[in-house]
Design brief:
The longest helix is centred in the first third of the chain and has 37 residues. The chain has three domains: 124 residues, Rossmann fold, CATH 3.40.50.2300; 170 residues, P-loop containing nucleotide triphosphate hydrolases (Rossmann fold, 3-Layer(aba) Sandwich), CATH 3.40.50.300; 126 residues, Helicase, Ruva Protein, domain 3 (Orthogonal Bundle). It is α/β, with parallel strands linked by helices and 449 residues long. Helix 13 packs across helix 15.
């Protein structure tokens, strides 16, 4: 595998002697070199966002240097391609520069001239890729703020952790109580990473009978067991190239744990009834409520598999530990439900808000979403028991109530900041600071055009 920390160069030249000499010289100069005798082979093996530079002869059988340039431009117009030309090819090379080539060197060229051109091209490529990375991170950050609502410290930390982990090729264990949004977090990890265009396959380990689990996970050939008619691709194989989400992974039968461990270690699987190994590339995100290592100590889970699944861990705080997020979540679910049935969202009274803030929410976000839907539909609100004690209660309730007041005023005045300032008797700077602290954007309250 190529090391992105090493400066990388791909050489394309149909003359083996020239190709080998350049490889040796550039390797001794500290570059990581890959060589191809045909442009077709280079294109077939060229990774997206390749972090290096291409160095190609112009005159080659099959796809020549100019045709290679055209195809590179179509794939990634910011990937540097340096052309090596003979004396008679200079007008052609000038035309290629106008068509997007980074540079051209006339043979015979000096080593110093080639090194200088390569260094400049590599610096430019590094800057391009860093800008792309920052733009992608900003885009993913916006998406996460829309998908994982909340301004509490725990939610802000969770979004940062997802951004940091999404691009890493490691398995992740998501821990949290029932209804806390573990599958939503898994989906965000998938969507913000390089596997986003590949399958995301979810499997609830507690919902499948043990007798059917192996066939469900690994697939089967026709006749592998009674009732196995035709070949069936299992969840692992179906997720190839993408992500397999194993919810309630603690329910995985011990016999299947051993087989899953082998798949993770060897990156191959065999369907039931087959002796053929199938290579797969799957990232596994597992979700659990209990501690897998405690499950292992109790003999209910393999310790070695627990370590394989828990390369990185995300812990989701229960809703009772992030009460300041309750008003925003409730409003989001209520508005969604109201829109679904073509109604205007109903206002939330101060008394009801107090009940929401003091309830312990044993069902977490799922329970809150149900309460918000009933509110939006005008159904009788379920009784909410108040917690005996609230962690950080006064500060959390004050923050949540302030955020709710700001939202209500922004909605009431349809995003008119001057009207909100007058209504709440707040100066512009104070209002801006409070809106920023609570993650409120004026655009979200503007009337639809």
């Amino acid at each position: 595998m190529l090391n992105p920390a090493v400066e990388q160069v791909i050489i394309i030249d149909d003359e083996a002697s020239i190709r080998d000499a350049m490889c040796q010289w550039l390797s001794l100069s500290g570059f990581q070199v890959t060589a191809f005798g045909r442009a077709e082979d280079c294109l077939a093996n060229l990774a997206a966002d390749f972090p290096g530079v291409l160095l190609s002869d112009v005159r080659m059988p099959g796809i020549d240097g100019l045709q290679l340039l055209a195809q590179i431009q179509a794939r990634d117009h910011q990937l540097p391609l340096i052309l090596l030309t003979g004396h008679g090819d200079v007008p052609m090379a000038v035309q290629a520069m106008q068509g997007g080539a980074y540079d051209f060197l006339e043979k015979p060229f000096s080593p110093e001239a080639l090194l200088s051109s390569l260094r400049r091209a590599l610096d430019k490529r590094a800057l391009v890729l860093e800008n792309r990375r920052l733009q992608a991170r900003a885009s993913h950050q916006d998406r996460l703020q829309a998908d994982l609502l909340g301004t509490s410290p725990g939610m802000r930390q969770l979004r940062r952790q997802i951004l940091d982990l999404a691009g890493l090729p490691v398995n992740v264990l998501v821990r949290g109580d029932t209804g806390s949004g573990k599958e939503r977090v898994a989906r965000c990890l998938h969507d913000c990473g390089p596997r986003a265009d590949k399958p995301f396959v979810a499997l609830n380990c507690a919902a499948i009978p043990e007798a059917l689990f192996e066939a469900e996970l690994f697939g089967h050939e026709s006749g592998a067991f009674t009732g196995a008619q035709g070949r069936r691709v299992g969840k692992l194989e179906y997720a190839n190239g993408g992500t397999l989400f194993l919810d309630e992974v603690e329910s995985l039968p011990l016999a299947q744990q051993a087989k899953l461990l082998r798949v993770i270690q060897e990156q191959t699987l065999e369907r039931l009834g087959s002796n053929q190994s199938i290579a797969i590339d799957v990232r596994i995100i597992a979700a659990t409520k209990p501690d897998l290592l405690e499950e292992a100590r109790a003999g209910r889970f393999r310790e070695d598999l627990a370590y394989r699944l828990n390369v990185a861990e995300l812990k989701l705080a229960p809703l009772r530990e992030r009460r300041e997020d309750i008003p925003q979540l409730f409003e989001h679910f209520a508005q969604h439900s109201a829109r679904r049935v073509g109604r205007e969202p109903l206002p939330l009274s101060a008394a009801r808000l107090g009940q929401l803030l003091s309830h312990d929410w044993p069902g977490n976000v799922r329970e809150l979403a149900n309460a918000a839907e009933r509110h939006a539909l005008g159904l009788e609100a379920p009784a909410l028991e108040s917690a005996d004690s609230l962690s950080g209660s006064l500060a959390a309730q004050q923050e949540a109530f302030e955020a709710q007041c700001l939202r209500a005023a922004l909605r009431r005045h349809k995003g008119d900041i001057k009207a909100v300032m007058a209504d709440l008797q707040l100066p512009r700077r104070t209002l801006n600071e409070k809106m920023q602290r609570h993650g409120l954007l004026r655009d979200a309250f503007l009337p639809d055009l």
